[in-house]
Design brief:
Elements: H1 2-28, H2 43-90, H3 94-100, H4 108-132, H5 157-163, H6 212-253, H7 256-261, H8 263-269, H9 273-278, E1 308-310, H10 317-320, H11 326-339, H12 349-371, H13 377-386, E2 388-391, E3 394-397, H14 398-406, H15 411-421, H16 423-433, H17 464-479, E4 481-482, E5 488-491, H18 492-496, H19 505-514, H20 521-532, E6 539-542, E7 550-552
Parallel strand pairs: 5-6
Antiparallel strand pairs: 1-7, 2-3, 4-5
Helix pairs in contact: 1-20, 2-4, 6-11, 6-12, 12-14, 15-16
């Protein structure tokens, strides 16, 4: 056992040293040389290095443009000086001066100089942002945005009701998101006004694109992801509203003394989304109940302690039929109907991944609202086969989304579906929508509405890889247990999908250590457990809890 422990620690040390060497090389590499990104690096590190390479390439490109603009500006100055010299010689300098004093009589050459100066300033702005580490893909847009599309998730429910539909742009409206200069070079125009993006929370207007080709491309790529995000936002708001409504109804049922005791709570129940976070009970500090396990070592479980917990008591039909929820359900119906018209053919891998994670979670959440809470694990499976959404004209169940789009179909699952639904339909959907290479981290992103499911959050096309890494790390922090008796307890959900991460239980523990925060106490406790253990097996299973429940990231 000690030999295995020494071997594991040696592997971890070698891994950390290799990562350190790669990062040091990336920091000190010469300008103009490429950054080598090995496959063994953690996914987040690879993403950061790829972004660094992109930023450095963009800086080099902008510096080249600035150099060209500076040369052109110097040539313009030389020509201007030469013209002035000739004008002095022929005594005609007074007229050009009179003309140049008026902004309405600028010559084309002077306009060109002003445009180039404006572009030079814009290029320096991008370089400054890149050096500070603030450079993002949307910073390369030809018209500067006035906000961030993710800010909608921070607004209250009433604001969502005001702008939810206004955010969406019809496919044929001719108004779309400006393309990135990665596809089209930046164009300098000193007289063009910067206009806000209609995708921002607030429904501002946007500058139309010059060609119908760019309009069609953006409608096919950006809109499905935005629609899936809005659909998830709407459902999360609905679930939050149901929590508030159920608590208000519970207070109204109580007697005068209890109602007086909870008067402040009743006031907060009507004050919006933020007040709900103040009402969380003690159970939400430990959503998976790991501290209830005998001999569990107390520790910080990370961000999961701050999540909002949704239970079956809030999914009462009376809460759903409450008049305060009707506007949200009307919005939900609009978003679901819009899904029938989406075109996913031109989505990138990351856009597909984010879209289908959101759609799976939305499909299941909508299924619970429509069909109610199942009373057994078997009825939960039935619900996952009944919960459907129409995506681009194809009606798809939640189970099909997980098994045949987000994951790679197995032989046994294919046989099962062929017996029930026929072969051609599922093969068609897999070929049409299936991911080319399934991402194993979806295990920590999709929730089937049980107490053992991971938290539900909204995934974006531009940040889905980093968001999945974050979801994985946070889930591991909240669900893995180390006891004072030197045992390591792992949730059954992780053991079910172990083939995606490790070959056996011991290598799974090694994998868990590599994906926990290095400074966290859980990683140290696992290493200490291995050091002091003398028997062969130290890993136990935490049984899966099928009781209904959701953990919401707000």
């Amino acid at each position: 056992m000690h030999g295995n422990m020494v071997s594991m620690l040696h592997k971890m040390l070698n891994h950390e040293e290799n990562v350190h060497n790669i990062l040091q090389h990336a920091q000190n590499h010469q300008k103009g040389t490429t950054i080598h990104i090995p496959k063994f690096l953690p996914a987040k590190t690879k993403e950061l290095l790829a972004e660094l390479a992109m930023v450095e390439g963009e800086i080099a490109r902008l510096e080249g443009q600035i150099s060209q603009l500076q040369s052109g500006l110097n040539r313009e100055r030389e020509v201007t000086r030469e013209m002035k010299s000739r004008q002095w010689q022929y005594g005609t300098v007074s007229k050009p001066r009179a003309n140049s004093s008026s902004p309405l009589n600028l010559s084309p050459r002077n306009l060109g100089i002003l445009e180039k100066k404006s572009f030079e300033t814009k290029a320096l702005h991008f370089i400054s942002k890149a050096i500070k580490g603030d450079l993002l893909l949307h910073d390369f847009s030809s018209s500067e945005k006035t906000g961030n599309s993710r800010e909608l998730s921070d607004h209250k429910e009433n604001h969502f009701l005001d702008v939810g539909i206004q955010e969406k742009v019809p496919k044929r409206s001719g108004i779309q998101k400006p393309p990135s200069p990665v596809r089209r070079p930046l164009q300098a125009n000193a007289t063009t006004q910067r206009e806000p993006d209609p995708e921002m929370a607030g429904g501002c207007g946007q500058k139309p694109l010059p060609t119908s080709i760019q309009t069609e491309e953006n409608s096919q790529t950006s809109q499905p992801n935005k629609l899936s995000e809005n659909l998830m936002k709407c459902l999360i708001f609905i679930y939050m509203r149901l929590i508030r409504t159920s608590r208000t109804m519970e207070i109204e049922k109580s007697g005068p003394i209890t109602r007086s005791t909870h008067s402040s709570l009743s006031f907060r129940a009507d004050s919006g989304l933020t007040s709900l976070l103040l009402q969380k009970d003690s159970r939400q500090q430990d959503p998976y109940g790991i501290f209830d396990i005998e001999d569990s070592i107390p520790r910080d479980i990370g961000p999961y302690k701050n999540l909002v917990r949704f239970s079956s008591t809030s999914l009462d039909p009376k809460c759903i039929s409450n008049s305060s929820s009707i506007p949200l359900f009307q919005k939900l119906r609009v978003f679901i109907n819009d899904l029938q018209k989406v075109d996913l053919r031109f989505l990138t891998y990351q856009q597909k991944l984010a879209f289908w994670i959101n759609i799976y979670n939305a499909c299941v959440m909508h299924g619970f609202v429509h069909f109610g809470v199942p009373s057994s694990p078997e009825k939960l499976v039935t619900l996952l086969n009944k919960a459907t959404l129409n995506i681009g004209g194809n009606t798809i169940t939640a189970r099909v989304i997980e098994k045949y789009i987000l994951r790679k179909p197995t032989f046994s699952s294919l046989n099962e579906v062929y017996r029930k639904d026929g072969k051609d339909n599922k093969e068609f959907l897999h070929n049409l929508y299936g991911l080319a290479s399934p991402n194993p981290n979806i295990t920590f992103a999709i929730s089937c509405g049980t107490q053992s499911s991971p938290a539900v959050r909204i995934y974006t096309a531009e940040g889905v890889m980093a968001e999945l890494e974050k979801s994985k790390s946070e889930y591991l922090q909240a669900s893995v247990v180390v006891t004072t008796t030197k045992r390591i307890q792992v949730p059954e959900l992780l053991l079910r999908n172990m083939v995606d991460f490790a070959k056996d239980a011991n290598s799974l523990i090694e994998w868990i250590c590599l994906h926990l925060p290095a400074s966290g106490s859980l990683r140290k406790s696992i290493v200490d457990c291995y050091r002091s253990q003398t028997t062969g097996r130290i890993v136990d299973k935490i049984p899966y809890d099928y009781e209904f429940g959701y953990l919401l990231v707000v």
